[in-house]
Every structure is written in structure tokens, then in C-alpha cells.
């Protein structure tokens, strides 16, 4: 008997609907725990990264470079991680991205000691691969999902991000205390949590995602195809194909447009809200409260939108998301001088992003041919992260020229583009 361990020992046995469902439940649980771990590390990193960038560079003007570097890192990692998943499975790809983020945190800590701004940006760029892992985890959650539960399973993994995203920034204080105890440079302590959380997440993926959901999905599809052919030979009646062999290109384009432009809208308005509020005399408590409610809107109700996507349809849920984004922009546009309206607008901004992203991701997955899904998903994540980076960069220019209300009205054009795309894109027959 061979003693060589198998990465997917259960795939060699005949698969049943029950065994596939069991693997799916395990996969979903592992991914949700991984999202919590990753969120804890990323939340602390993103908060302290801007402060550290300003201190090392000597200018607050460079503080935004930290967020830009994370977004760029996520975009650059999207395609390589998707290709790795296609070749070796979800677990190695997700673990590689998590370990890359952990290595980036070590580099950022080194940069803090050396007071090197370029090295800090390089480290934060690598940390961005952790964001790419978060994005691809939602697709890993639906490798084995049925059409009836695809939105729900995807949304549950997105929802798990809430715990880390909300709790992560609160680790800055304990991280600094721990860093001081260990003799680390100032402001580098919180990166320890990133190293620990991402390393634990990598180990979790490698151990917990066995058998690998992507490999099981491939084996299950082949088994269903064999069963269909056998039934066809027995009965003489042509059996329907198990899954479409070709991409639904209009569906893919619609999904990518919906995800990317919704993300650009969210990033553009969210990034400029603290600047607008503080310029109008709001306290940091109000700013923090507003962003916290916005983050809660992004993730907390994602299971609701997942269920809606399954029951009323992906397109209808994307349209609902665009309606909430439009309502948000009207609130921040016409109510820009009122803290209450801005807070309400940011909540709806998060809700609209959540509905559009969950439903759009489900639509993207089922529109792509099975043998091309990982690559299509990687391209979508690349476009999504790139759109967010561009939206965030241009938002500052628009804010300076037209003000916060002008930014809101300009962003309405992105919402209108998605609505038009929904109207003109034919449904797949």
C-alpha cells in the first residue's frame, strides 16, 4: 500500500449527491473561518498602514498610498491565483495568497524599522494578495453549490468577513502593546496579527479543503456526464447536457460590469466621506461611526441578498442593488451638508454594493463554462480591484473640482451604466 498522502483522497471513490453536499458544507465552513482570520489581519493592517505611510514619508499626502498599494496588490494577484487554482486546486491557491500576505506583513515591519517608504509600499502591495484571497474565497464557496443555493453559499462566505472587518481595527492598540513588549519599531506591532492570521488561514485551507472542492466539482461533473451517456444508450433518448460547454459571454460581461462599477461607485464615495465630514467639522467619532455602519451594510446582510439572488433571480437582485446605490447617491448628493443624511447614504452605499456583488458573482459563475470558471473569476477580480483603484484615485480630483455632492452626482453615471447593461443584455436560453 502506498504511503504517499493524497491531496484529494475521496475523489477516487464513487461520488453521490450526498457526499458532494457533505464536501460543500465542509468547504463553506472552512472558507467562513478563513474569512474571519483574514479579516482580522487585514483590518489592523489597513488602518495602521496609512498612519505608517504618512510617518515614514514625512507627509500626510502619502497616507492614501497604503490603500492604493493594497488594491493594486489584489489586482496583480487575481490572475496568478486563479491560474494556480485551475492547475492545482483551490486550497494551494488560497494558501499561497495568504502566505504571500503574511510575507508582505513581515516586509512592512522591516520597512518600519528601516524607515523605508518604498519597502513599506512593497510590503503592503504583497499584503494585497490577502484581499485577492478574500475575493476568490467567495467563488470557491460555489464550486460545488447547486443553482438553487449558489447565491446563499456565496453570500455566507462574504458575510463572514464582517467579523474580521469590524474587529480588525480594534487590534491596533493591542498590537502596539505587543510590539513594544517585543521591542519592535513603532507602529509595526499590528502587522504581527496579519502574519499570524494569514499563516493560520493558509494552514486551514491546506488541511480543511480536503478533498479540494474544485477537484471534486470536476470529478462530479464527469460522473454526471457518464451517467447521462449511459442513460442515453439504455433508453435511446438523448439526455440533456449536465452543464453548458460554452461561455455565456453576454452574461459574463453583464456580471463583470455590475461588479466592477458597483465597486468603483462604493470606493469613490466611501473614500471621500471622511475627508468631507472632517472638513465640515465632524468629529473623528462621527467619522468612525459612519464608516463602521457602512462596513456593516457591506457585509452583514449579504445572506439576505444571497437568498434573494436564488429566489427572485441574479439580475433582479443586481437591479435592487443599483436602486440602493442610486438612493445612497441621492442622499449624499442632496444631503451633503447633513451628517444624518451622509450616514444614511453610506449605509445604503454598503447595502447596494453587497446586493450587486453577491448576485453579480453568482451570475458570473453560472455564465462561465466549467473548465474556464477560475480564469473568468480571476479576470473579474482583476477588473473589480482595478476599477476600485481608479475610482478612488479619480474621486479626489472630482471632490476638489465639484465637491462632495458633485462627486455623488457624477457617480450616478456608473449606476446608470449598470442599469442600461441590465436592460440590453439578453438572457441565456
Word description of this protein:
By secondary structure, the protein is mainly α. The chain has 14 helices and no strands. Helix 9 (249-279) packs parallel to helix 12 (314-334). The radius of gyration is 22 Å and the shape is globular. The termini are far apart. The model is unreliable at 1-10 (pLDDT under 50).
Short synopsis of the structure:
The protein has 429 residues and is mainly α. The chain has helices at residues 17-57, 65-88, 90-114, 117-140, 150-167, 172-181, 191-208, 213-235, 249-279, 284-299, 302-311, 314-334, 339-367, 373-424. The protein is built from 14 helices and no strands.
What helical percentage do the residues reach? Answer: over 70%
Largest sheet: none
DSSP helical segment count:
14
- Output the helix-strand order: HHHHHHHHHHHHHH
Radius of gyration: 22 Å
Produce the secondary structure layout:
Blueprint: H1 17-57, H2 65-88, H3 90-114, H4 117-140, H5 150-167, H6 172-181, H7 191-208, H8 213-235, H9 249-279, H10 284-299, H11 302-311, H12 314-334, H13 339-367, H14 373-424
Helix pairs in contact: 1-2, 1-4, 1-5, 1-7, 1-8, 2-3, 2-4, 2-14, 3-4, 3-7, 4-5, 4-14, 5-10, 5-11, 5-13, 9-10, 9-12, 9-13, 9-14, 10-13, 11-12, 11-13, 12-13, 12-14, 13-14
Amino acid at each position: 500500500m502506498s504511503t504517499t498522502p493524497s491531496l484529494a483522497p475521496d475523489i477516487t471513490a464513487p461520488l453521490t449527491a450526498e457526499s458532494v453536499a457533505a464536501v460543500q458544507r465542509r468547504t463553506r465552513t472552512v472558507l467562513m473561518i478563513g474569512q474571519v482570520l483574514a479579516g482580522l489581519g487585514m483590518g489592523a493592517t489597513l488602518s495602521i498602514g496609512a498612519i505608517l505611510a504618512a510617518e515614514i514619508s514625512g507627509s500626510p499626502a502619502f497616507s492614501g498610498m497604503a490603500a492604493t498599494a493594497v488594491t493594486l496588490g489584489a489586482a496583480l494577484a487575481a490572475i496568478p491565483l486563479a491560474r494556480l487554482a485551475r492547475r492545482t486546486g483551490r486550497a494551494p491557491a488560497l494558501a499561497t495568497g495568504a502566505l504571500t500576505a503574511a510575507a508582505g506583513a513581515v516586509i512592512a515591519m522591516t520597512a518600519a524599522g528601516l524607515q523605508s517608504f518604498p519597502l513599506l509600499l512593497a510590503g503592503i502591495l504583497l499584503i494585497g494578495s490577502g484581499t485577492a484571497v478574500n475575493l476568490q474565497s467567495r467563488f470557491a464557496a460555489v464550486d460545488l453549490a447547486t443553482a438553487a443555493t449558489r447565491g446563499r453559499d456565496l453570500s455566507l462566505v462574504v458575510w463572514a468577513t464582517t467579523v474580521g472587518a469590524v474587529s480588525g481595527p480594534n487590534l491596533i492598540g493591542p498590537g502596539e502593546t505587543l510590539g513594544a513588549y517585543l521591542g519592535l519599531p513603532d507602529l509595526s506591532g499590528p502587522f504581527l496579527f496579519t502574519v499570524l492570521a494569514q499563516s493560520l488561514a493558509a494552514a486551514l485551507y491546506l488541511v480543511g479543503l480536503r478533498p479540494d472542492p474544485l477537484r471534486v466539482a470536476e470529478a462530479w461533473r464527469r460522473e454526471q456526464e457518464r451517467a447521462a451517456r449511459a442513460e442515453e444508450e439504455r433508453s435511446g433518448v438523448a439526455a440533456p447536457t449536465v452543464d453548458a460547454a460554452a461561455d455565456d459571454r453576454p452574461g459574463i460581461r453583464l456580471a463583470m460590469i455590475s461588479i466592477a462599477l458597483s465597486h468603483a461607485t462604493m470606493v469613490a464615495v466611501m473614500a471621500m466621506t471622511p475627508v468631507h465630514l472632517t472638513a465640515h467639522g465632524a468629529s473623528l467619532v462621527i467619522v468612525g461611526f459612519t464608516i463602521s455602519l457602512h462596513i456593516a451594510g457591506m457585509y452583514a446582510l449579504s445572506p439576505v441578498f444571497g437568498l434573494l439572488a436564488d429566489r427572485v433571480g441574479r439580475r433582479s437582485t443586481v437591479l435592487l442593488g443599483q436602486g440602493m446605490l442610486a438612493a445612497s447617491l441621492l442622499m449624499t448628493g442632496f444631503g451633503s451638508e447633513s451628517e444624518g443624511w451622509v450616514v444614511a447614504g453610506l449605509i445604503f452605499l454598503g447595502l447596494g454594493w453587497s446586493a450587486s456583488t453577491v448576485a453579480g458573482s453568482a451570475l458570473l459563475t453560472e455564465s462561465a463554462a466549467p473548465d474556464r470558471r477560475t480564469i473568468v473569476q480571476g479576470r473579474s477580480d482583476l477588473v473589480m480591484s482595478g476599477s476600485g483603484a481608479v475610482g478612488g484615485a479619480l474621486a479626489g480630483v472630482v471632490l476638489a473640482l465639484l465637491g462632495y455632492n458633485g462627486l455623488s452626482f457624477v457617480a450616478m453615471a456608473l449606476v446608470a451604466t449598470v442599469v442600461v447593461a441590465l436592460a440590453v443584455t439578453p438572457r441565456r436560453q
